[in-house]
Amino acid sequence: MATAIDIAFLVVYVLGAFAYASALTLSLRQAAPVWSTARRSGPLGASGVALFAWSAVWFVVLGLDQFIDMATGFTRRSWLDLVQLLLVFGFPPLIMSTTMRESHVAEWPPRPRRWAERVLALGYVLGATGAVFAGSVALQLLRVPNADLAIGLTIAGLFTLAGVFSGLVLQRNPRRAATAESHRLRRVLNGLFIVLALMNFVPVFSSTSALSFGTLGQMMSVTPLLFLSATTYYENRFEFYDLLVKRGAMLLATLLTLGAFFAVALPLLDALPRDTTRPWLFALAAVPLMMGAPRMARVLSRQLDRAWFGRYFTPVTAVTTVLASMQSATDEASLIAAAETSLKEVLGVTVRLGTEDVTPEDARVAFKVDGSVADPSIWVVVPHVPGERTLLSEDLTLLRSLGTVVTYLVENVRLQQRRQEQDLLEQELRVQSSQSELKALRAQINPHFLFNALNTVASLIHSNPARADRAVEQLSEVFRHTLRRSDSEWAPLDQELTFATAYLDVEEARFGDRLRYTVDADATSRRALIPSMLVHTLVENAVKHGIAQRRGVGTIDIEASAADGRLVLAVTDNGPGPQSTPEAAAFARKAGEQFGLRSVRDRLLGHFGADARFTLERDETRGVTVARLELPVVTPDARGAGAVELRA
Questions:
Q1: CA-CA distance, 395 to 455, in Å (whole number)?
Q2: Given 9, 358, 513, 560, which is the most exposed site by the fewest CB atoms within 10 A?
Q3: Do both 230 and 270 map to the same domain?
């Protein structure tokens, strides 16, 4: 008959298997220090990965053994006992190896380093020898007097060796002795090693068989979970600690909820008819539980964020707070100061922003966001400040997103400053169209698009993290291209189409299934040069005045072809059209013609005169609006020669 203690240990075994399997998976996913150049320990080495995998298998075997025991009336199975016994011998050398790597023994002087390496090699030899010896005794291949005593002494001795070795290594390592958390961690680990060694000696002197597992054996079996909890709690070794805690808490909550549900529901469901309808009735009974699970997960995650990790801002409120703080900034210095203040308010840590002159050697977190060609990269640095909280995976993801936003705004301020200086120094431009083009380019950086895109990313962070990451990348590409092209009058059509695709990808994340688009251009047209951001203006107009005004699914088709020295570019949308209502027509004249489409006409007139045409027509038969450009083909060598004919 299963007792509450047996059920409790089964739950602990399941949690242990889940914790170590999750930690192993997240460790393998943990990227090299690309955006965090100042990790405390770096990604796990081979020994750490092996220890996680070994511990995961250990808890799986324990859970399987306990489950079968409870299901069959606690009938012993020698094969599972043998597997557990053999797994025990692998822990001491793996613990020693992991401690060596985490303590930077490779940086020690030669003699102490050789001493540590020899003791580690001895640990592996003793572990393998002990496993072979114990396995031979358990399988009765080897008969020795007092075999259980010998096995128990071997296990206790190995853990004693691991504890003494790890304690000496941790004590000698100057890096770990540098913080109060490291001192506490060392004391806790030493205490766990002492307790574990003593627990292994108890069966030896009490003549208890080393192959039998009672309550003491169950207590000894969960010690790997204690080691994982100690290292993550005191040192926050893993950036994914918050994800591990949340997943573990969700698993525990799920087990408790399901256990309570079945305890109440099964006696009632047993009275149901035993026919083909029985599974469906069981499923219907569980519907309220399944419907409430997402809500329970959100509430639990939010409570853990507030009570455990000290996070009081959701991603949406964090983005809103940072953007609101920078709205009143008038120059780069005031914008950076406002951003640093709001980031500290949101994240609870000091954040420093600067150019590549910043040296992040002693920083807890440091990464740079690459700017455009004309602007240096922006460093986002979290320095060591005593008493401040540790940033974990969700904090770092949010910080990276906010850093990208701040970098774009800084570059935008720099761009505006450069444009102001250029306007003062270059009063006489080569053609009047260049002045209107510069103003149009600045107008293309649409603040409404930025805020809509950022709100979309913020809403996707929890529901679809992968789509949110892709949207942030595409948003960065849009603004990087905008800044880069603002310094260049001409661009290949292929680059302009790539830019338009990135812009539409961001809008697709906002509109969802309401937006679909296609791009079709032949190879000859893609090589042609056109005034930069011309395609983007037409696409943005189609989204704003076409797709955004349509209730159903909207489509945008971009087509380009080149023949007989002429380039034809068409952007088609199935929106209601600029003249569908008097309000829409007035809006189109005010917003579209004034800043967007009029700029297209002016620039074409300035570059090509009457040799280029731009039309915006409504095809009521197909229910589409078509913006069409027809202009001479310009190639890089042809433009340099002052010609516009098509060249192969």
A1: 18
A2: 513
A3: no
